[in-house]
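User: Predict the complex with nicotinamide-adenine-dinucleotide.
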Amino acid sequence: MRIGFIGLGNMGAPMARNLAAAGHEVMGYDTVAQPEGIALAGSAADAARDAEIVVTMLPDGAILRAVAAEIHPAMAKGAIHLDCSTVDVESARAVAEGAEALGLLSLDAPVSGGIGGAQAGTLTFMVGGTEAAFTQAAPLFDVMGQKSVYCGSSGNGQAAKICNNMILGATMIATCEAFALADKLGLDRQAMFDVVSTSSGYSWSLNAYCPAPGIGPQSPADNEYKPGFAAELMLKDLRLSQMAAEAVDADTPMGQRAAELYARFVEVEDGRGKDFSAMLPRFSGRGRS
Ligand code: NAD
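Assistant: Here is the predicted structure with nicotinamide-adenine-dinucleotide placed in the model:
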């Protein structure tokens, strides 16, 4: 397929490279990055013009809206705009409406799996849009990822992503504060892990991504909390979840508290640039006040 790829940052560049390596004709564009191994166009519209599918992998909803306004008029009728960025549900739905009005198909398909998953081609895609567009884009999901889940109409991919990450943020905090409490109660971390990982407190945060160094499977905790999944990206997703919750009047007190704690960690304390599991040393170093 002829593919335009806009946004060649930490995630986009390896995704675009994997598409090119699979034999697709990829034309990339980024305002700043010029990664090797990807043919580059002079503008976003140029990258989009002859493409059957245009992938965007951009920082936020405002930038996505601006790029969509530029590329949609250049795209051929029936072409697909496949947005893999993590953005607010409202922007995803507005971009989809704009595409539809011009006779284009669109999908919101945010990913989980991080930079490692982007490089290895093992991302998971959560996809909103029409089933017809999902079926057409499936070969790309197979190259860039190992799993794609159809979630329903436009915006539902973003909804799935922020709900998942709201659970993740809250369970990571709960896991970290429990380890810090266990420390102060004199309970050995290995014993704590052995009990909880096989008891009703288990979760992905504990079992697969244990925030305590030297305990459980290999995780960023074993690498001085280098990300992994950076605390500021978790903060971004938690804020998106709270924006969405406000828009539909949903009561999400745990998500709200998680957003507040990560905001403090990233913006006031020294959490920026650390993995989101570095909440454990944060809690360990504090008392109740
Ligand atoms: P990044 O900042 O490395 O890349 C974004 C790229 O977009 C940059 O190269 C930037 O120059 C480019 N860009 C900005 N404005 C542009 C414009 N108008 N036209 C063209 N290019 C433009 O970010 P990333 O880590 O690659 O993340 C991309 C998206 O994926 C974000 O929405 C992020 O939330 C999401 N995501 C990231 C991860 C991760 O682990 N990094 C995991 C899951 C999802």
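The mean pLDDT is 97.
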